[in-house]
Amino acid sequence: MLDVRQQTNRGRRIRRASPRQRLIAGLFVLGVFALFAGLWALFIRTVADVGQPLQHPILFFPLPLFLLIGLYWVRWWAIRPSRLLVEALRAYDEL
Questions:
Q1: Which pairs from 57-63 meet CB under 8 Å and 24+ separation?
Q2: How many helices (H) and strands (E) does the chain have?
């Protein structure tokens, strides 16, 4: 059994997302949605229907750009991995 002091100390260590983190996450989600919608709008605007839909060459540029951004993001997460939930809970129980 835990005494009251340990229970209150544990309750203080629980961290919630700050308003700044929520704002950043919301802007990130909005940006990804705008990017997705923008690419579709660009495709619909530039498609040429000559018996078969043809893509405009401008649509070939976003793919390598997004691949480079995605590869850099994966590299960043591989170098600086965040703690897993299980590790955080084990560290929390040890306190």
A1: none
A2: 4, 2
Evaluate if pTM is beyond 0.85: no
How far apart CA 14 and CA 88 sit, in angstroms, is 11
Tens-place pLDDT, residues 16-31: 667 777 888 888 889 8
Measured CA to CA, the distance from residue 24 to residue 81 in angstroms comes to 20
- Cβ–Cβ contacts within 10 Å for residue 14, how many? 7
Cα(36)–Cα(54) distance, rounded to whole angstroms? 20
- Nearest Cα residue to 53 out of 61, 62, 63, 43: 43
Strand blocks (E) in the chain: 48-49, 53-54
For 50, the token pair is 């000559």
Instruction: Extract the tokens encoding 42.
Output: 């660009």
Phi then psi for residue 42, to 5 deg, are: -65, -40
* CA 62 – CA 58 distance, rounded (Å): 8
